[in-house]
Design a protein that fits this description.
Elements: E1 2-5, H1 11-22, H2 31-39, E2 47-53, E3 56-69, E4 74-85, H3 94-109, E5 113-116, H4 123-128, E6 132-136, E7 139-143, H5 146-153, H6 165-174, E8 192-193, H7 199-205, E9 213-217, E10 221-230, E11 233-243, H8 248-262, E12 266-269, E13 282-284, E14 289-294, H9 310-313
Parallel strand pairs: 4-5, 11-12
Antiparallel strand pairs: 1-2, 2-3, 3-4, 3-8, 5-14, 6-14, 7-12, 7-13, 9-10, 10-11
Length: about 325
């Protein structure tokens, strides 16, 4: 078996292996999606290793580039994301071999750390390879339709209504995405993504596997909402939220107008986003489990220091 870095010309073979290994569940696998995620990322192209044996591609492992800042300096981070092993070559340690080789390479290159939010099946494997569990991320929740939520939880209601993709796309395409320029590089408290000017457009406008609803006013607020059907109903996931001084009321009113239009069952946002205050919002540890793997920076920030957006941690 040979291991080598991936090149853009490998994209079609990588997508074929992802489909063979994982199927087209969760997110649709395509060359367009792979290029958007791993080549067009404004933080830089992903670091991807491939394993080949008997003339076929048998393994892929990708670390996505990211940047975090604590308000004083930027950290070169990696996000452990896509991985696949050919069904005929499982049980040979390919995932572990590729992962450990990428760790060694990126440590030598001077990257600071790796973060990800693995599921319960993959987390034990990461912990065995040196990852540590930071904790389950808290989320602020507001129940918009409590009766519908209760009926659905008890199995008394039909599946939640989902906004038509065309309606969401219409809102997205009509939005003035240059509003993001007001917020790029704004100071933060705690650990936040170190945004790039093209980040918001890349992440939410151009994403090929999800539709996002943006709303905002220049020099006032910017919100990006992901309407997502869950087992409990239609969730309005506020994946990006920036609210200027004195603009909380305007942001709250805009979000309420959007809720009237699409009638979600509940709304979620990362805590501390300025408009999740009051008795109508509750904070619960129901987000994904955040894990950390040191490279050259060896101290994982405490869970309370991560001033994340839900879009930072969302799987895509």
């Amino acid at each position: 078996m040979t291991v080598r870095p991936a090149t853009p010309s490998d994209t079609d073979r990588i997508v074929e292996l992802l489909k063979l290994s994982l199927g087209d569940v969760s997110t649709t696998k395509s060359a367009h999606f792979w290029r958007w995620k791993h080549l067009d990322n404004p933080f830089g192209a992903s670091h991807v290793l491939l394993a080949e044996a008997d003339g076929i591609l048998v393994g892929v492992r990708a670390f996505m580039q990211w940047r975090w800042t604590d308000g004083r300096r930027e950290y070169s981070a990696l996000r452990a994301v896509d991985t696949a092993t050919h069904p005929g070559y499982r049980g040979r340690g390919i995932f572990k071999k590729l992962t450990l080789q990428l760790i060694a390479e990126r440590t030598a290159a001077g990257d600071d750390f790796i973060f990800n939010t693995p599921n319960s099946q993959s987390k034990p494997g990461y912990l065995k390879m040196g990852w540590q569990e930071v904790g389950r991320l808290p989320v602020a929740l507001r129940i918009n339709r409590p009766l519908a939520l209760l009926q659905r939880k008890l199995g008394w209601a039909a599946a939640a209504w989902e906004p038509a993709p065309a309606d969401v796309a219409k809102e997205r395409d009509a939005f003035d995405w240059s509003l993001w320029e007001d917020w790029a590089g704004s100071p933060v408290q705690g650990w936040s993504t170190a945004y790039r000017p093209k980040y918001i457009g890349w992440r939410y406008r151009d994403c090929p596997v999800a539709n996002y609803l943006p709303l905002g006013q220049r020099n006032s607020y910017l919100l990006v909402v992901h309407p997502k059907v869950t087992a409990l109903g239609l969730e309005f996931r506020v994946v990006q939220a920036h609210v200027g001084p004195g603009q909380v009321g305007a942001a709250q009113a805009a979000l309420q107008d959007l809720r009237r239009q699409f009638t979600p069952d509940y709304t979620s946002v990362a805590p501390g986003r300025n408009f999740d205050w009051g008795v109508s919002w509750i904070r619960r540890e129901v987000g994904p489990v955040l894990t950390f793997r040191r490279l050259t920076f060896d101290q994982a920030p405490a869970l309370t220091d991560w001033q994340y957006q839900l879009g930072d941690m969302e799987l895509f």
